[in-house]
Amino acid sequence: MFIASSGTLLGSKELPHFSFHFIRLNGSDKTPPRSSAFTEMEYFSGSLAFITLFLLNTAICETTCGFAACPAPKLNMINVHLVPHSHDDVGWLKTVDQYYYGSQNKIQHAGVQYILDTVVEELLKDSKRRFIQVETFFFAKWYSEQSETVQRAVKKLVAEGRLEFAGGAWSMNDEATVHYQSVIDQFNLGLRYLKETFGDCGRPTVGWQIDPFGHSREMASIFAQMAFNGEFFARMDYVDKKKRMLELEMEMIWQSSESLKSSNIFTGMLYNHYSAPPGFCFDINCEDAPIIDGESYDNNVDARVSDFIDYVKNMSKSYRSTHIMVPMGDDFQYEDAAVNFKNMDKLIKYVNDRQSEGSQVNVFYSTPSCYLYELHQLRQTWPNKTEDFFPYSSDSHSYWTGYFTSRPTQKRFHRDGNHFFQTVKQLSVLANLSDTQDLEDLDNLSQAMGIMQHHDAVTGTEKQAVASDYDRMLYKAIVGAENSARDALRSLTNLTSGEFESCLELNISVCALTQNTANNVLVTLVNPLAHSSTQYVRIPAKNENYLVTDEKGREVFSEVVPVPWQVLALEHRPNDTQHELVFKASVDKIANFLIRVLPSPKNMAEDQVYFPVERDQQESQELTVETSLAKLTFDTTTGGLKTVEMNGITENIEQSFGIYKGYRGNNGESKNRSSGAYVFRPVGDIEILNNKLELSFYNGSRVKEVHQHVNEWISQVIRIYEDVNRVEFEWLVGPIPTDDEVGKEIVTRFSSNISSMGKFYTDSNGRELLERERNQREHFVPDMSEAISGNYYPVTGQISLQDEQKRITLLNDRAQGGSSLKDGELELMLHRRLLNDDAFGVGEALNETQYGTGLIARGKISLILDAASGKPNQRLVQHQLDQHFWKFFSKSNGVASVNRHLIPDFYDFPKSVELLSLEPYSKDQILMRVENFNTEGNVVSFNIYPLFESLDGDQIWETTLDGNMLLEDVKRFKFTQDGSGTIPSSAEYYYAPHNPLSANSTMNASAFVVTLVPMQIRTFIIQQKYISS
Predict the structure, then answer these.
(1) Which of 480, 582, 918, 1029 could be 441's S-S partner, Cβ–Cβ 3.0 to 4.6 Å?
(2) Is the pLDDT of residue 46 over 70?
C-alpha cells in the first residue's frame, strides 16, 4: 500500500503533487543496504509495484515535453532554477563497466545503475521534480535492462518533461583533443538512440559540457549546426571568470564560426563549478547538514534558508537577468535519490515561504532548457564572444595544457579508430550489408568510438588501468568490424574468399600476412575520400625482388626501403621484415594490387643507395636531398635540417628536439603544483638536444629518406616523395629516461626567419583556424606566471605561422599541444613521462610503461612551406592525410577485380567538396554528409542525383548536422548582442540557413542540386527503394 504524506489513500485519481513514502514489511522507509540480497529484492519489488500503481493511477496524457512543461516563474523576483543532475564519467578512475555496476568502490564510490534506478523512482513521486540525463551510453545500457513497465514509466517522464536529456551524445566529449568528425558521429549515435526511443521529446536542446577542461569554438559551432539553443559549461580561465563575474558577462553570445551565417549560440558559464551551493549538497556521499524541520531541537530551517537566500543574492550579482540557474549535483550523485529530493523539496518549500515576509527569491525545479527559455523571453542584450576558451588555467601555476599530449599512443589509436570507422561505414553502404552480425559489429565500433570521445578518455587523463580498458574495448570493436569490412569486400570484389585482414602495427612496419613472405599478397586499398587520390603505399616486406601489378596486370614501379634500425631494435617486435616495399597507387574508391616475389636475386646493391652520410661528404658540409617538388639541405657537421625549398619558396628551417623538465611539487598550494596528466608545468626553459646527429641517407628513385639518430631514445626519418610537395617527419620517442628522478616532456621545434610578429594559427578540432597571439587573450589579461604552458594550445590537425611572404604549416597525425614561443618558431609536444600527480583527481603519475620500461611512441608530422596569402588553409591536405588509403591484405595467386557497377560515382563533386560521412542510418536508409573544405571564396554547387540514383535512392531529405532532425523543423533561439542598437519586440529565432533539399526519384535532376558556402557541411538521409528478397 502507498500512503500520501497527508495520509490520504490513493484511489484511481490523477497523481497529486506531493511526495510518497514506501510502507515496507520491515517498517523502514530507507533504501535497504545492498549487502542484503533479500532486502534488495524486496526493495526492487516495491519499486516495481509503485511504478505499476503510478501507471494505473495516471492517464497517459498528451505529450507536454519541451517548454510547455517548464515551471512558471514569478515577476519581480529572482527566479532560481534548481537543476538536479549527476555527472557520470564514462570512465576515469574506474572503467565504464565498474562505474555502471558500482564495483571497485574502494577506488571511488559510484554505481550509475543505482542512480538511474532511484532517480526514476523519485521523479514518479512528484510531478514538480526534474532531472537531467547527459551521458546516453549509461542511460541506454540501463534502459535496456528494465522491464516493460519501468520503460513505460520512463517514457511518461520524458513525455512530460520531468526527465530531460541535455547534451545527449554517447559521452560528454572533450573539446581540445577530439576531431570534429568523431564528435559529429557520437552525437549522431546518442541523438538517434533518444529519437528512436522517445521521439521528439527525447531530443536535447542545450549542450551541457560541464567538465571538459576548456572549450572550443568548433564545439559551439557543432551545437549551432545541430539546432541547439545554447550550451553551458563550468570551466573557464580563473582570471577570465573573475572579470566576467564583475562585469556581468558570465553569459554571452558566441560567434562560433567566421564562415557560417547563423552560427551565434548562447553560452553560459556556471557560477560554482557544476556543484550544489556550498553547504547544500544533500547527497549521501556529502557531509552537509540536511534540512531539519518539525518539532526538533536541531531544527535548522531558518538558518539554512537564510544561507541559501544570501548565496542566491550574491550569485545574482554576477548575472544580468532575474533568472539564475543553480545545479544540484556532482560526480556520481543521486545513488539514493530520495535523500537528495526530500531535502530539495524542503529547501524549495521553506525558501518560498519567506516570500510572505518580503523575500524576492523564488525557487523551483527546472532544467537548463527551461532556464534558457526564460532568458530568451526576456529579449535583453548579451556580450559577444568570438574566439575560444583555451588554454584553461585554474590558478596562476596550473595551465591545463599537458593533456593536449598525454598518452600519445592512445591519441593515435583514437585517430586510427576513426579512420577505420569511416572506411567500414562506407564499405557497408557500398556492399549494402544487411546481415544482423555485420550491423551489430559496426554499431559496436560506433559505441566504442563514442566512449573514446569522453573527456577523460582521448584526453589521457584517466588511470592507467582505465586507459588499458579503453584500448581493449576499441581494439575488440575494430577486430569485430573487420568482419563487416571483409564481408563487404568479398561482395565488392571477385575475391569471394579473401582474408582482407587489416594490419594494426604498420606504424612499426609489422604485418602478419607479410611476415614470412609478401609473395602472392593482394593489397586492397580503400579510399575514404570522394575524389580519386594518388598516394604512396608502404608494405612491410623482406629485402627481395618484387613485382607489383594493378588490376589490369600492368607493372607498378616499386622500391624497397630499409626500416630504421631503431625501429628494428624495438623490444618484442618480430624482425622477420626489415624493409618496406613502397609503390605509388591511384585509387578511385577501391583498387587491388598484387605483390609477387621474382625468382631472380634483386640487384638492389643496397649499400649504394643507403649509407652513412659521412661516406659522401668529402668536400661539402651539406647534404642535399631533392625531388622535383621539394629540396632539403642538411648540415652534416650537426646532422640537422638547414633549409627547405618547395612551392617556389626557400627558407632556413632548423628542426630540433627538446626537453622540458616537469615540475615536482607536493601540490599543497598553487606554487607547488606538479606537472601531471592535466597540467603542463616545466621547470625553467627548454633543454635543446644539440648533440651531433648521426645521419644515414636512402637515395631512392621515388622516395628519399634521411635517418637521424638523436640519442638512444629519440630518432627520426625525414622523408620526401616524388610529386608530393610536403616533407614528412616520422619521429620515434621513448622510453623517456627517468633514472635522474626527473619527469620529462619532449617537443620538436621548427625554427625559421619568418617574422610572425607574435602570431600563429591553430585549428579548432580539425576545422576552422584561430589566430593566436603570444601572451594575449581575447577578453582579459592572462596570468602568465607560467609563460611557456600559458602559450600552449590544442593542435588537432595543424599549426601555422606566416609573415607577408612566407608560411610554414605543420600537420600532425594525432592531437598534441603546440605553440610559437618566439617569432618564426613552431613547436609540438610529442610525448610526456612524469613522476608526480598534479592533484586534479586522477591520483597517479602519468608514467606509462610497456614491456617493463617507458612507453615508446612513433608518429608523423608533415611540413608545408608556401607563399603567404590570407589565412592558412591546408584543410584538404589534412583531411587526405587523416583519411588515407586503408590497406587490407589477402593471399592470392592473381589480381582481384573490383565490381565497379557497385561503386557509386562521385565525379560530380567539386574539388573542394569532400565526403565527410557515408553510412547506414537505419533499415534501407543511408546518411551522407558533404563538406566544403574551402575557408574562403565563392559558393560551390553540384548535382547529387547521379549518386542518389547509384545508391538506389527513392527519397532524400536534409537534416541538421547530427542527422536526426529535419532541417525544415529548425527553430533555434536567437539572442541580441550588446551594441546592436535595437531590442526586438518579440522573441527571435534562427531557422534553416537555406532551403532544405527534399526530393524523390520521380523528380527532375534539377531538384538535386546542392550548394555549399565555404566550410559548410550538409547532411542528408537517403531512403532506398525497397527490394524484396
Answers:
(1) 480
(2) no
Q: Is 691 exposed, middle or buried (0-12, 13-18, 19+ CB in 10 A)?
A: exposed
The answer to whether 331 is a known catalytic residue is no
C-beta separation of 676 from 837 below 8 A: yes
Please pick, among 211, 240, 283, 866, the residue that the annotation labels catalytic: 211
Backbone phi and psi for residue 103, each to the nearest 5 degrees, phi listed first: -90, 170
Q: Look at residues 94, 813, 192 and name the one whose alpha carbon lies nearest to residue 446.
A: 192
Look-up of cell digits 541559501: 308
**Cβ atoms of 754 and 806 closer than 8 Å:** yes
Angle at 214 between CA 209 and CA 218, to 5 degrees: 75
69-168+204-392, what's its fold?
7-stranded beta/alpha barrel (3.20.110)
Amino acid at 383: P
Domains of the chain, residue spans: 69-168+204-392, 609-883, 913-1024
For residue 408, pLDDT over 50 is answered with yes
Q: Tell the CATH topology of 609-883.
A: Beta-galactosidase; Chain A, domain 5 (2.70.98)
* pLDDT tens readout for residues 698-748: 999 999 999 999 999 999 999 999 999 999 999 999 999 999 999 999 999
- The pTM of the full predicted model, rounded to 2 decimals, is 0.94
User: Cα–Cα distance between 432 and 923 in angstroms, integer?
Assistant: 10
Tell the burial category of 319 from Cβ atoms under 10 Å away from its Cβ (0-12, 13-18, 19+): buried
Q: Confidence class of residue 606 from pLDDT cuts 50, 70 and 90? A: low
Taking every pair of Cα atoms in the chain, the longest distance, rounded to a whole number of angstroms, is: 103
The pLDDT of 282-288, averaged and rounded, is 96
Residue 21 confidence (pLDDT) above 70 = no
The C-alpha cell at 267 is 553560452
Q: Which three cell numbers stand for residue 240?
A: 577570465
Contacts of 569 (CB under 8 A, 6+ apart): none
Q: Which positions ≥6 away from 923 have C-beta within 8 Å? A: none
If residue 949 lies in a helix (H) or strand (E), which one and from where to where? helix 945-950
How far, in Å, CA of 669 to CA of 131, rounded?
36
Q: Where are the alpha helices (DSSP H) in 559-696?
A: 565-568, 606-609
Per-residue pLDDT reduced to its tens digit, 435-483:
999 999 999 999 999 999 999 999 999 999 999 999 999 999 999 999 9
State the pLDDT confidence band at 40, using cuts at 50, 70 and 90: very low
As assigned by CATH, the class of the 913-1024 domain is: mainly beta
- What is the C-alpha to C-alpha distance for residues 63 and 159, in angstroms, rounded to an integer? 5
10 Å Cβ neighbour count for 373? 21
Residues 6+ apart with CB under 8 A from 274: 85, 87, 210, 211, 234, 327, 329, 330
Report the alpha-carbon distance of residue 706 to residue 685 in Å, rounded: 29
Q: What pLDDT score does 53 carry?
A: 60
For 537, the grid coordinates are 603505399
Calculate mean pLDDT across residues 906-931.
95
- Neighbouring CB atoms inside 10 A of 150's CB total 23
Element spanning 927, H or E? strand 925-932
- In 329-477 the beta strands, taken as DSSP E runs, fall at 361-365, 381-382, 384-385, 393-395, 398-399
Q: Do domains 609-883 and 913-1024 have the same CATH topology?
A: no
